[in-house]
Amino acid sequence: MRKLKVAMLGFGNAGSAFGRMLADKHEEIKERYDCDVIVTAIVTGRRGSIVNPGGIDLEKVCTAGASGAFPEDTEGLGALTAMEVVETADYDVVCEMTPLNIFTGQPAIDHIKAAFARGKHVITANKGPIAWAFDELEQMAKDNGCMFFYETVVMDGTPVFNLTEHTLKMCRVTEVSGILNSTTNYILEEMAKGRDYDSIMESGRQLGFVEADPAMDIEGYDAAAKVTALLNVLMKAGITPDMVDRTGIENITAEDIKDAASRGKVIKLLCCGKLDEDGKVTAFVKPVEVEMNDMLASIDSTTSVVSITTDLMGKISVIEHAPEIEQTAYGVFGDLLRVIEGLQQ
Amino acid sequence: MRKLKVAMLGFGNAGSAFGRMLADKHEEIKERYDCDVIVTAIVTGRRGSIVNPGGIDLEKVCTAGASGAFPEDTEGLGALTAMEVVETADYDVVCEMTPLNIFTGQPAIDHIKAAFARGKHVITANKGPIAWAFDELEQMAKDNGCMFFYETVVMDGTPVFNLTEHTLKMCRVTEVSGILNSTTNYILEEMAKGRDYDSIMESGRQLGFVEADPAMDIEGYDAAAKVTALLNVLMKAGITPDMVDRTGIENITAEDIKDAASRGKVIKLLCCGKLDEDGKVTAFVKPVEVEMNDMLASIDSTTSVVSITTDLMGKISVIEHAPEIEQTAYGVFGDLLRVIEGLQQ
Fold first, then answer.
1. Contact residues, chain A, for B163 at CB < 8 Å
2. Which residues are registered as beta bridge partners of A289?
3. What pLDDT score was predicted for residue B212?
4. Which of A17, A285, A320 is nearest to A163 (CA)?
5. Chain A residues 2-31 with a CB less than 8 Å from chain B
6. Any chain B CB within 8 A of the CB of A178?
7. Digits of tens for pLDDT over chain A (345 positions)?
8. Taking CB atoms and an 8 Å limit, are A330 and B318 in contact across chains?
9. Number of CB pairs < 8 Å for A and B?
């Protein structure tokens, strides 16, 4: 039986949910794929690192949750940085789930490059690398004979990249659009109910929909990074997020929303990228009015959608309904299964 | 370069659109897959058959359209039946697109069995075989070392079966639902606009949304066959369409629709199948009231949707927006690419 060694960079909500899924499915993976998956390294921002070439006891470290300290008797506890683990630990595939600087894609990009330099496979849940450095990373993966998967970057484990690659063969993507930012979607929805901005932000923080610093979401940076990632992969756009024509929802007023509603419309923060006649891809993120009976109007709260138009298959849409953290974990998990299958070929 | 010989059973709108797509993409397939795809046999209901082991001139026969007679000088013109072609012609893969008896799945089932018996691969666009005989056919494919693909059976080439198999690995499907019949969707929508039934049926016939005998659609037989196909493949349900609890829209009145609208609701013909606690799959087709702002309410006219709920990935939906005949053709085309890839492994 093949052994597959996994290094995890980041062990927050999504990371620990992935750890739990791996532990739960360990025997089933063994049975189906004849592969024994073990986690040999975990790095966190504030809780130190664990390195154990024999395999970390996932049940044990997952009971600590996403923020609690690891049990003191955990074998291999230390204080390595993510880069130290990437460069020195014994693993076959690294799962990059560290916190992101959305303006640079770092430090995730450097972690990924360091892993490829060692000939290791990479799974990333981080949109930054795909938005800021996709072409370079993809080339580096090829040059080093490594697999590189990133389904989780847009809509968790909902198939978007895999969908296009594995189920729309030979289709040329001509347009991609969607509603991809839950925070702004939630805020616009609550504003439409007549709630005031401050109370929305407060309850949003409590529900986990709104970050401590919400500017990345509200000003459209998160959505711009996601649409860039989509366009770089699906349309080989070779763009960066700063090339997206970006307008956030910061200037949308309760009046705007009421006015739209009086005309049977709803305001949504839409992401869109199109191939123009010269073969150039242009993209925008902006609040748009959609008809009340349009599918886009039905995308509420944390639900999101990507629509893909191709030459051969027309327009199809994929919706992820009200995901939980397990759906993020599944994105990484599904990519890991893809690595296992790739190694078997 | 490998040569792949295709036999086509049925050459109506979808068949000839598939023929055109094959002709258009012939060189691109050669380049990408190092495979020269030729069509060695075409059978029609009323226009006779063409058998040409050297490869039929697709451009030429496609100019005849979906119903016009083939040019008299077409090499290999004859009057073979579909079964005669399946049993005697020289081909590697058969595309089953003959007209369907929805109560039996025939004659498609017999064509497919005869192809497997000769060790040939099968692509079907026909829901009948998947609804009435999936387990048996799948077993026969396995026993004979044949590939068996059927993406087109539900929502044309929109990935549903491939989506679940190739992008939701290790997920267990627990529920499937959707709006899968365009005719009833169109009729309900037009009734909601206040139009009378007879004028809807007349314009529906002109638009090609309503069949000469609309009972198969209106009474829910078509929807029941589609949900059965979904459940047989995605949940290994092992059921037949007569086991679906089926109610059509024949008793829905203009009053019902008005009454629903007054409560902010829309009537849609919903298909649904669920895994119950005993591991048994139960299914229904029936008109249900959905909220005006529900995604299902936005599925208008020929647009359709399938929602899939799994243990690991929650609920996702796939929408096919206003398909044309090319999207049906792509379903068969995509399956053909899958056959080519399968032969390369």
1. 159, 163, 167
2. A267
3. 78
4. A320
5. 21, 25, 28-29
6. no
7. 999 999 999 999 999 999 999 999 999 999 999 999 999 999 999 999 999 999 999 999 998 777 789 999 999 999 999 999 999 999 999 999 999 899 999 999 999 999 999 999 999 999 999 999 999 999 999 999 999 999 999 999 999 999 999 999 999 999 999 999 999 999 999 999 999 888 999 998 888 878 878 999 999 999 999 999 999 999 999 999 999 999 999 999 999 999 999 999 999 999 999 999 888 999 999 999 999 999 999 999 899 999 999 999 999 999 999 999 999 999 999 999 999 999 998
8. no
9. 125
Q: Is B320 in Cβ contact with A319 (below 8 Å)?
A: no
Q: Out of B28, B170, B323, whose CB is closest to A337?
A: B170
Q: Using the Cα atoms of residue B241, residue B246, residue B251 and residue B254 in order, give the sign of their dihedral.
A: negative
Q: Which of B234, B218, B316, B231 is nearest to B272 (CA)?
A: B231
ipTM: 0.96
- Interchain pair A318, B317: CB under 8 A: yes
Nearest to B298 among A162, A298, A323 (CB): A298
> Is A286's Cβ below 8 Å from some Cβ in B?
no
Cβ–Cβ below 8 Å for A313 and B297 = no
Q: What is the pLDDT of residues A174-185, one digit of tens each?
A: 999 999 999 999
Tally of CB atoms within 10 A around B130: 27
Q: Among A257, A263, A260, A289, which residue's Cα sits nearest to residue A192?
A: A257
Quote the strand ranges of B64-203, DSSP E: 77-78, 93-96, 121-124, 148-149, 173-179
Give me the residue from B297, B314, B322 closest to A321, CB to CB: B314
